[in-house]
C-alpha cells in the first residue's frame, strides 16, 4: 500500500508541475487505500501538493523568472484560498460542478481554436489596469481553489496568459508560485482543524517533490507547445472526471 501511495504521489507531483490536477491522481488513491475520512484525505493531499508545487515553482523561477508582483499575488491568493476552505461546507458541490464543466469546455475550445494564444515571446506592456486585473484573477481563483479546486493551475495559466499577453511558459512559472500559496492557505485551515495525518503526509510530500522536479524539467524542455497540449488534455480529463 505504501509503495502504491508513493508512486501515486510522485506521479501526482509530475502532473501538477506540468499543468496542474495532481489531486485527481492522489486523492482517489488515498480514499481507496487508507480508510481516512474525506477531510483527512484532502488535508494529507494538500501537504504533498504544497511541497511538490513549491519545489516546481523554485525550479521554474530559476530558469524562466517571475515578476515581483507575483509575490503580492501569492499573498492575495493564499488568503482567499484560506477563506474558500473555511467556507467550503457552505457551498453545495452539485451547484459548482456544472458551472466548472461549462467553463472548462469554453477554455478548451478557445485554446484549440486559437493556436497562437500563449505561443508568443511576451510579456506585453504591463499597465496598472493589467496588474489590477491580475490581482482580481488570483483572488477569484484562490477562493475557488479553497472551496472546490479542480483545474486551479490551468485556470491560473490561462488567466495570466490572457491578462499579460505572455507565453504559456512564463504563465506556468507564475502559476506555480501562486498555486503554492493557494495550497498553503487551504492547508493552514486543515491543520487548524487537526485533519492532517502527518507521518503519511510527509512521506507523500517527499515523493511528490521528486515527481514535481521531473515535471518542471519536462515543462522547461517541452516549452509552450507542451503546456498547450497538456492544457487541452487536462480540460478533457477534468470534464470527464466532473461528469462522472
Give me the secondary-structure topology.
Blueprint: H1 2-18, H2 23-33, H3 38-64, H4 69-86, H5 93-113, H6 128-147, H7 152-164, H8 168-192, H9 198-243
Helix pairs in contact: 1-2, 1-3, 1-9, 2-3, 3-8, 3-9, 4-6, 4-8, 5-9, 6-7, 6-8, 7-8
InterPro entries: TM_pro_TauE-like, TSUP
Main location: membrane
Pfam families: TauE
What does the model show?
With 244 residues, this protein is mainly α. It has one domain (2-243). 81% of the residues lie in helices and 0% in strands. The chain is built from nine helices and no strands. The longest helix is centred in the C-terminal third of the chain and has 46 residues, at 198-243. The radius of gyration is 17 Å and the shape is globular. The mean pLDDT is 89.
Give a short synopsis of this structure.
The protein has 244 residues and is an all-alpha fold. It has helices at 2-18, 23-33, 38-64, 69-86, 93-113, 128-147, 152-164, 168-192, 198-243.
The percent range for strand residues is: under 5%
Largest sheet: none
What's the pLDDT, averaged over the residues?
89
Number of domains: 1
Any idea what the radius of gyration is? 17 Å
Uncertain segments: none
Number of helices: 9
Number of strands: 0
**Derived structural class:** mainly alpha
Order of helices and strands: HHHHHHHHH
Termini distance? 26 Å
Amino acid at each position: 500500500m505504501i509503495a502504491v501511495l508513493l508512486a501515486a504521489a510522485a506521479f501526482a507531483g509530475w502532473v501538477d508541475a506540468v499543468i496542474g490536477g495532481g489531486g485527481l491522481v492522489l486523492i482517489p488513491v488515498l480514499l481507496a487505500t487508507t480508510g481516512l475520512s474525506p477531510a483527512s484525505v484532502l488535508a494529507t493531499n494538500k501537504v504533498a501538493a504544497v511541497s511538490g508545487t513549491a519545489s516546481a515553482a523554485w525550479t521554474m523561477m530559476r530558469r524562466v523568472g517571475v515578476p515581483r508582483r507575483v509575490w503580492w499575488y501569492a499573498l492575495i491568493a493564499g488568503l482567499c484560498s484560506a477563506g474558500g476552505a473555511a467556507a467550503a461546507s457552505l457551498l453545495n458541490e452539485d451547484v459548482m460542478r456544472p458551472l466548472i464543466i461549462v467553463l472548462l469546455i469554453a477554455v478548451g475550445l478557445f485554446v484549440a481554436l486559437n493556436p497562437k494564444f500563449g505561443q508568443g515571446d511576451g510579456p506585453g506592456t504591463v499597465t496598472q489596469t493589467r496588474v489590477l486585473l491580475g490581482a482580481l484573477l488570483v483572488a477569484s481563483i484562490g477562493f475557488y481553489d479553497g472551496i472546490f479546486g479542480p483545474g486551479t493551475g490551468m485556470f491560473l495559466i490561462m488567466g495570466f496568459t490572457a491578462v499579460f499577453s505572455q507565453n504559456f511558459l512564463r504563465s506556468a512559472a507564475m502559476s506555480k508560485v501562486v498555486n503554492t500559496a493557494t495550497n498553503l492557505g487551504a492547508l493552514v485551515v486543515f491543520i487548524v482543524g487537526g485533519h492532517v495525518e502527518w507521518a503519511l503526509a510527509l512521506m507523500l510530500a517527499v515523493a511528490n517533490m521528486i515527481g514535481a522536479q521531473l515535471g518542471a524539467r519536462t515543462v522547461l524542455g517541452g516549452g509552450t507547445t507542451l503546456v498547450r497540449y497538456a492544457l487541452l488534455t487536462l480540460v478533457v480529463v477534468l470534464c470527464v472526471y466532473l461528469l462522472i
